[in-house]
Design goal:
This protein is α+β, with helices and mostly antiparallel strands. Helix content is 15%, strand content 47%.
Length: 432
C-alpha cells in the first residue's frame, strides 16, 4: 500500500445552456456568478445548479479576444487562466472609445484582471480597502502615494464572453473615476442605488510582457497614442542624465578653480602711458622687459584708456629675447551723446587681445599707437597690462552648454509626452 499523498487536481465543471443546450465549462467553479454561452451568447446566472437565463443575445456573434479564453500565463510569479472577457465603451465629445477587460483566475489566489486599450495593458487587482482620503479636489492618497485625478465617465458593457465573478449583462452601465500615479492606476467603479464604490489598483504592463507570460500566438496589438498611466519613456534616464550633468558641472568648476589657483592669470607687466595724435615725432616705443614663466600658455594684453568720442589703434608686437615674436593690433573707441531717445554710448574705453600659446621666456612689447589728429583735443592716457595664463571662460561655458543639451532634449521630450497624456483627460490644459 502506497503512503504517498496525491496532490488534488483542480478541474472545471461542465454544465449546459438552458437556451441552446450548448456545453458550458465553469473554470471559476463556485466563484462564478455569471457565465455566457459561447454558442448562443445567452447570459446565465450560475449561482444555482439550474442555470437561470438573465439575458438572451440578439444577433450575437462571438468575438475572439486577442488573448483567447483558456490561455494560461504567469504574472507576478502566479499562474493565471483567462476565463472571461468583456468589451466596455464610453462616449466623450461625440466620440466612442472601447476597450477590453479580461478576467483571470487562479483557484488558490482568486481573481485578477487585465485591461487593454489601443495596445496599452494594465494588470489589475481589486482592493479590500478604500483610499486614505482626498488630498485635494483632484488628488487622492493610497498607501502614502498621491494619485492625480485623470477622468470620470460612464462605461457601458457592450460584449460578454466566458464567466465573471459578479452579475453582469450587456448594456449595463457603471460610473467610474480614474486617478493616476504612473505606472499605477487607481480606479473606482460606482454601482447600485446607494452609489457603492469598488476600488481597484492597476499597474501598466506592456503587450510584449503579456504575450511572453501567456505564450500567446501572433503579436500583441500595436500601441497607439499615450495611455493615462503609461510611464514616461526614459523618465529614470532623464533624472540620471541631469545627475550626470550636475556632477560634470561640479567637476568643471573644480578644474577651473584649480587652474585659477595654480596658474591664476598673474599680471607680469603694467605701465601707464600718454599718446597725443597731434604731436610730431615717432610715436612707437618699447616697454621694459618682463618674464613669462612656464609652462607655455596664453598671454593677454589689456589697454585701458580715457577716450572720449575718439578712437586709438594700438599696433603691438610681443617680442622675446630668444627671437619669438607675435604681431597683433587692436582698436579702442568710445563715443557718447544725447538724442531724442536720451543718452547713448557706443564702444568702450578698454580692450584686450589674447595670444593663445606663448613659450616661457623674457619679453617686451613694441607699441605704436595711431589716432585721428583732426578730432583729438586732449592726449589719450592709457594703461598697458600684460597677464599670463588667463582663464578663458568661453570654453567652459561652451562645454557647459554642450553638456546641458542631452538633459534638456530628454526633458522636453518628457514634457511633450505628459502633454499628450493629459490631452486625453478631463484636464487637457495640465495635470496640476
Amino acid at each position: 500500500m502506497s503512503s504517498a499523498i496525491e496532490t488534488p487536481v483542480v478541474q472545471s465543471a461542465a454544465l449546459y445552456c438552458p437556451n441552446c443546450g450548448g456545453s458550458i465549462q465553469l473554470r471559476g467553479f463556485a466563484h462564478t456568478l455569471t457565465a455566457i454561452c459561447s454558442f448562443c451568447g445567452t447570459v446565465l446566472d450560475t449561482s444555482t445548479p439550474a442555470f437561470r437565463i438573465l439575458q438572451t443575445a440578439q444577433e450575437w456573434q462571438q468575438v475572439q479576444p486577442p488573448l483567447p479564453l483558456g490561455s494560461r500565463g504567469k504574472l507576478d510569479g502566479v499562474e493565471w487562466e483567462v476565463i472571461g472577457y468583456q468589451i466596455r465603451s464610453m462616449e466623450s465629445e461625440g466620440e466612442t472609445y472601447a476597450w477590453g477587460e479580461y478576467v483571470l483566475f487562479n483557484p488558490y489566489r482568486g481573481f485578477r484582471y487585465l485591461s487593454e486599450y489601443n495596445g496599452h495593458w494594465n494588470f489589475i487587482r481589486t482592493l479590500s480597502r478604500i483610499p486614505e482620503g482626498a488630498v485635494s479636489e483632484r488628488r487622492i492618497r493610497l498607501d502614502g502615494q498621491v494619485f492625480r485625478k485623470f477622468q470620470s465617465a460612464q462605461a457601458q458593457t457592450t460584449y460578454l464572453l466566458g464567466e465573471f465573478p459578479w452579475r453582469v449583462q450587456v448594456g449595463e452601465s457603471v460610473n467610474f473615476i480614474d486617478y493616476i500615479a504612473p505606472p499605477l492606476l487607481l480606479s473606482g467603479e460606482i454601482t447600485g442605488s446607494e452609489n457603492e464604490i469598488t476600488w481597484s489598483l492597476g499597474r501598466y504592463i506592456t503587450g510584449a510582457e503579456i504575450w511572453k507570460a501567456f505564450n500567446a500566438p501572433n503579436l500583441p496589438p500595436a500601441t497607439t497614442g499615450v495611455f493615462e498611466n503609461q510611464p514616461t519613456p526614459r523618465a529614470g534616464s532623464v533624472g540620471g542624465i541631469w545627475k550626470a550633468f550636475g556632477w560634470s558641472l561640479i567637476g568643471l568648476m573644480l578644474v577651473m578653480i584649480l587652474m585659477s589657483l595654480m596658474l591664476g592669470g598673474r599680471t607680469v607687466f603694467e605701465q601707464a602711458y600718454e599718446f597725443d595724435p597731434k604731436a610730431g615725432g615717432e610715436p612707437s616705443f618699447v616697454t621694459p622687459d618682463f618674464e613669462l614663466k612656464p609652462p607655455t600658455g596664453n598671454v593677454e594684453v589689456q589697454m585701458k584708456t580715457d577716450l572720449e568720442n575718439n578712437w586709438t589703434y594700438f599696433n603691438l608686437a610681443l617680442i622675446g629675447t630668444d627671437g619669438h615674436a607675435f604681431n597683433f593690433g587692436h582698436e579702442v573707441s568710445f563715443y557718447e551723446g544725447q538724442d531724442s531717445d536720451g543718452h547713448w554710448t557706443e564702444g568702450g574705453k578698454s580692450g584686450a587681445v589674447t595670444i593663445s600659446s606663448v613659450p616661457a621666456g623674457t619679453y617686451f612689447l613694441r607699441v605704436e599707437p595711431e589716432g585721428d589728429k583732426t578730432k583729438a583735443t586732449l592726449p589719450v592716457h592709457y594703461r598697458l597690462i600684460v597677464r599670463r595664463h588667463v582663464i578663458n571662460w568661453l570654453f567652459p561655458i561652451l562645454a557647459l552648454i554642450l553638456l546641458a543639451i542631452p538633459p534638456i532634449i530628454h526633458s522636453f521630450r518628457g514634457l511633450g509626452f505628459e502633454r499628450a497624456r493629459w490631452q486625453e483627460s478631463d484636464y487637457p490644459q495640465g495635470s496640476a
